[in-house]
Here is the input.
Amino acid sequence: MKKKLTFLGIETSCDETAAAIVQENSNSTANVLSNIVSSQIKEHKKFGGVVPEIAARSHIENIDFIIEKALQKSKKKIKDLDGIAATAGPGLVVCLHVGFNIGKSIAAFGNKLFFPINHLEGHALSPSIENKISFPYLLLLVSGGHSQYLIVNGVNNYKQIGTTIDDAVGEAFDKTAKILNLGYPGGPNIEKFSKLGRKDSFILPQPIINRAGCNLSLAGLKTDVLRKSKNLKSNKERYNLAASFQETVNKILKKKTEVAMKQFKNEITNKSLKYFVVAGGVAANETIRKGLKEVSLKMNFKPIFPSREFCGDNAAMIAWAGIQRCKKKLFNKKNETVKSRWPLDIKAPFLKGPGLKF
Ligand code: KG4
Ligand code: ZN
Here is the structure.
């Protein structure tokens, strides 16, 4: 019988210190033996956002304990592992260094293969942890730092068909929560307080909604929330504005997803069962999930959402990406190091900054 690969994954790109032990299953899915995530929410809460130096110090304090815990829970020892995968970017460089260096050291001392992983590839491949799913598929990656539509042709083979030209969707949630004083982290709090408000009470802008293909723009929406927030007279109105913001994002994502699905259908003509995968922290949002399921039904796509534990940042997706790269023999170049910016599709145009025209 062929040996099943077992990997340690390490993730420290932002404010979560995470380690996981993952083993491949025979049906192209993963057996997550342990998935330990230590969130730094409490440490950053008083600043209303992630402070890189505090995040890096916290990773340094916790990482060895978290790795130890992941090994203990999985009942594996370093000698049982086939490889070690650590996030190498994109993210905060001071934070990335912590997980990357410890991963590289464990690999060197344990004589194991080492895989530097693109965090976005971790999210992109995360749906197949739990689902048997075939390439190519359409991916919407919506996190705190990124919002992209990608055609995932295979491991290491991504085509970006749309991206945000300003704020990422999670970033818009976080900034809006800050404007409305709803606490940190923004996404889950907007979702919580939206339940107390009416989603149709404010009409908010949907920038570039009928142009620019499936590219997204959210900065104007956030600015309008800021403007309207100055005239709020009660908590009820605050919740109404939160609910209207969430609903507007929902409408934007529904419309742009429909455009992305049309493009996918035009480009991938030989696939009858079409998968639409949503990954990243924002994929945890129930309203957005419901909206995207409706579009999938309309456009004849099968929607897939990773479980909550694999939506946000975690190390299981990093270990899983490492296993898949190993199977494809995509080995590390010796001089590889961490990088703050690392697009999945290096040919994609950089769509940020002044002077953009569609
Ligand atoms: O993927 P992730 O954990 O980290 C990054 O790679 O950025 O995503 C974090 C982002 C944050 O902006 C957070 O506010 C957002 O995901 N988020 C949500 C929800 N849960 C997390 N946004 C909307 N609704 C949620 N329930
Ligand atoms: Zn992420």
